[in-house]
Specification:
Blueprint (H helix, E strand, L loop, with lengths): L3 E8 L13 H12 L1 E7 H7 L1 H7 L5 H12 L2 E4 L11 E3 L4 H10 L4 E4 L2 H9 L5 E7 L19 E8 L5 E7 L4
Length: 184
């Protein structure tokens, strides 16, 4: 079965916002590799529309290798978008989900292939509550945002995880790799 990996950025105060954080070359390289090693990424509408920014770098590269490489990687990976309002993804490598989240993810898990990434806060919360997340990769940025959406609100009940790995960046950001223990 394919593994579901919830990969997301967060500030020290728990804010999960793709516009918060300290993006740098190391971080872009890290996520470029994660995308290249994965089979599909799932997005909600809001995050998906933010990620469409990277399409502009395909047409007009930034000249920064790490950003341009990330743009190529995110363009290449198949994307499944969960939205009740979008009618078209406007991205050749993206499609709208045709099933409910639990059914879509369960079907993807049964397929052969590389990991299933989840890059949207709302989907991560739903998948945690459905016990469908196999690994968390939470990148904590050394900053306080002070406002915004908390990553772990609306969780149904206690969840216990085991730290399986860490990765520290020169910026001070750290990726914590956690796996559910099965205990609550």
């Amino acid at each position: 079965m394919r593994k579901v990996i919830a990969a997301i950025n967060m500030t020290l105060d728990g804010i999960c916002d793709h516009t918060a954080g300290i993006p740098d070359e190391d971080l872009h390289r890290h996520y470029t590799k994660l995308l290249a090693d994965s089979g599909v990424i799932l997005y909600g509408r809001t995050t998906y529309q933010l990620m469409q920014f990277w399409q502009t770098l395909l047409e007009k590269p930034s000249g920064k290798k790490s950003m341009d490489d990330f743009a190529l990687a995110i363009n290449k990976i198949p994307k499944v978008v969960f939205s009740q309002t979008l009618k078209d993804t406007e991205w050749d490598s993206a499609k709208l989900a045709t099933k409910a989240l639990e059914d879509e993810v369960s079907a993807l898990k049964r397929e052969s292939g590389a990991a299933i990434l989840v890059g949207s806060r709302s989907l991560i919360i739903q998948l945690i509550n459905l016990n469908l997340v196999d690994e968390f990769q939470i990148c904590i940025h050394p900053m306080l945002e002070g406002k915004g959406l908390q990553l772990f609100d609306k969780i149904n009940g206690r969840k216990i995880f085991r730290l399986s790995n860490t990765k520290i960046f020169d910026s001070g950001a750290i990726v914590l790799y956690y796996e559910p223990t099965g205990s609550n």
